[in-house]
Amino acid sequence: MNRRDFSLRLAGAVGALSVGNSRLGAAQLRHAFQANGPALNGDRINQHLTALSEFGKNPYGGVSRVAYSEFDRQGREYVMGLVREAGLEVSIDVAGNIFGKRAGSNPALKPLLFGSHIDSVPDGGNYDGDVGVLSSIEVARSLKERGLTTRHPIEVVIWQNEEGGTIGSRAFVGHLPDKDLDLVAKSGKTLRDGIKFIGGDPTKLSTLKHVKGEYAAYVELHIEQGGTLEAEGLNIGVVEGIVGIGWWDVTVDGFGNHAGTTPMDKRRDALMAAAKYIQMVNRVVTSEPGRQVGTVGRIQAFPGAPNVIPGQVQTTLEVRDLDQAKIVRLARKVMEEATKIGAENGTTFTFKETYLSTPAIMDSGVQKVIETAARGSGLTTKYLPSGAGHDAQYMAQIAPTGMIFCPSVGGISHSPKEFTKPQDVVNGANVLMRTVMALDAL
Amino acid sequence: MNRRDFSLRLAGAVGALSVGNSRLGAAQLRHAFQANGPALNGDRINQHLTALSEFGKNPYGGVSRVAYSEFDRQGREYVMGLVREAGLEVSIDVAGNIFGKRAGSNPALKPLLFGSHIDSVPDGGNYDGDVGVLSSIEVARSLKERGLTTRHPIEVVIWQNEEGGTIGSRAFVGHLPDKDLDLVAKSGKTLRDGIKFIGGDPTKLSTLKHVKGEYAAYVELHIEQGGTLEAEGLNIGVVEGIVGIGWWDVTVDGFGNHAGTTPMDKRRDALMAAAKYIQMVNRVVTSEPGRQVGTVGRIQAFPGAPNVIPGQVQTTLEVRDLDQAKIVRLARKVMEEATKIGAENGTTFTFKETYLSTPAIMDSGVQKVIETAARGSGLTTKYLPSGAGHDAQYMAQIAPTGMIFCPSVGGISHSPKEFTKPQDVVNGANVLMRTVMALDAL
């Protein structure tokens, strides 16, 4: 079935939309969930998490398994072994993404895709990506062990180089231009060499362009990476969408001069203006209700000596929200206020947009299925946006897509302190399992 | 005569102090100035400035003649030629400082020392140091051409590596410890190799320890490097003292986290705290009357990515004033306020003192002589502190010392845009000449 049909059926199934589709309803959704057997083997997921953490383990805790590193390759080998044990047929596409596939009982149906990534940031943790991958494999293994065959084909995916800019999923939907292959990844290898290193074929990337209608749905389980679920004592996050992100390079030009000989009232200090800018960004971003965030994460003063008044400051602006219009509106307001700050001490601000991604809205039908799956497992839920980017944002361009969040202790991520409690991992995996089964039954 | 005698005589000469010294008075000072012949050859100084500017000239303007570079050596060779033409006997001390000496008529008198430096900062200008050196040489040459012999011996000095931390003058007074010889200068050479490169002998530095009583006085003509004289339309600055300088390395510790997933009200953003700190430094430093300055010149956020909330910021504090107690008081106030800022968002500030130099007060008698010399040339004057460090601050430890400032256009220094008008250079040189003659006559 094509995407539109599938979405309509989902929407109808949960009564979310008045689409006049009478074929499916609450009763059928109940049936779909009743089709589920017992929960999967949660202990095994946590054991696999521990085993995977060995590849790139840091002596001071956490992991550095950056994409295309030797540790990344070792981790992929380990995970491919698990995929095989789960009864899936392993393949690597030309972009280097790993797939584990199993046929369904109805050849007319499109595949259900679910998975995540196992590469990490430098000095990262053992939950970001890994939880989704190992849970996805466990879902497939559990089906095999229970002798169940889905109606749809199922595919588990391990996207490559998520942390370096969702490279694998971008390539999968044809959004990785050849020129980007020369970019150097954290491993020190170019994307081109990295893709070769993990078994892909960068010369054939242009052949890779998956389009709408190929997949029945995509579901990704991931840790929240924020602290909302933990703070509110909730089990499962139903992701409404993945925020859009705007990045700007900001240059403040003043006048560099001798810090000893230039009186305080004669200075055109670029860092003084930058200091006001940083506080202003915080004020502007929080001036509207909502969950938008704005960050100044990088700064450097030039020439950068303690005894020279900074003549130039290079800094950044990042704004994230589910609403693209709000991102643009807040950034424009920041630029207006920056101009005023500059006028106060004879400095000038220049903003250069370096990245602007569109928010990716999750399929409302899949969201409802996830919520129902969680409630059916006795778990509490909250609808929330993902402030972080995920491979799901590219899959959302070609398939009804949903994301399941499980809680991050302290909201900490991209850090050796990243942690999700074993039971929360198991909860997430069970919701993934029930979601896949429900989508398969629809 | 020893320093105390000389200072008293100077003070008595200008009626600045009631020291009950009846031997000298205003009449004798007038006599001293009447002893001066015609002004020196100002055009020649400006021609030499142009000629010296060729060594290390940058295609985009200004000069990079950092100490111990090949350009520095070439510039020194050129200047030593001028010293010889001025009838002075050239020597290089073990620290690499150049001296041009000529005997006086009274063997019982101590030498009068005057000079400056010719090394520059990277991308510096052609007036900082050069004006004082070339004017000093011209004073000697003018005396020779007019057939005048001073009573005191005269010595013109070209200090080495002023810009790298007044290395030559520090060594001269025995304040350059052997361990500092391993420091790497801007040229890439260690001080040890640099001193060898310019003809000194670093193994004999410990033999170099000039002490009080060896010199009758030290006088240095220099560009102001600030904009006070120009802004007030004045010709000559009489330097009251060279400010003390305090430097602190400042570390702000917060909590680094994902910029997309951490709500605005859950952040311990080290850069937000640093932004408040920068503004607070400005506020605290300007909260007292006076000419003190405070600067934050260096800053870096870590990890320093646009999409990560900074967990740490490394920055600096510099405070300068003629009053050491004020430096300490302001720095303490800054630290107190920083603690409060940290408490607001769960960050902590740590201050580490990296440098604290004592203010160097110029000899009040020499100041009066300079003022009288300027007035006698029909020039307007202003007493003011030097916000920049100079070799004079080390000479002040062993001899009655004075500094003459001539105006810097726009107050710009350490920049290719550094400029002092030819007439202002000549004015400064004439005041130096009259000051030397007056000191010689006392």
CATH architecture of the largest domain in chain A: 3-Layer(aba) Sandwich
Number of strands of chain A: 16
Q: Percent of residues of chain A in helical segments? A: 25-40%
Category from helices, strands and their pairing of chain A:
alpha+beta
In the residues of chain A, how many domains can be counted? 2
Instruction: Summarize the biggest pleated sheet of chain A.
Output: 9 strands, mixed
CATH homology superfamily name of the largest domain in chain A = Zn peptidases
Mind telling me the C-alpha Rg of chain A? Answer: 24 Å
The SSE string of chain A, one letter per element, is HHHHEEEHEHHEHEEEHEEEEHEEHEHEH
Ends apart, CA distance between termini of chain A: 11 Å
CATH class value of the largest domain in chain A:
Alpha Beta
How is the CATH topology of the largest domain in chain A named? Aminopeptidase
Name the chain pair with the biggest interface and residue counts per chain: A-B, 63 and 64 residues
Number of helices of chain A: 13
How much strand content do the residues of chain A show? 15-25%
List low-confidence stretches of chain A: 1-9, 11-26
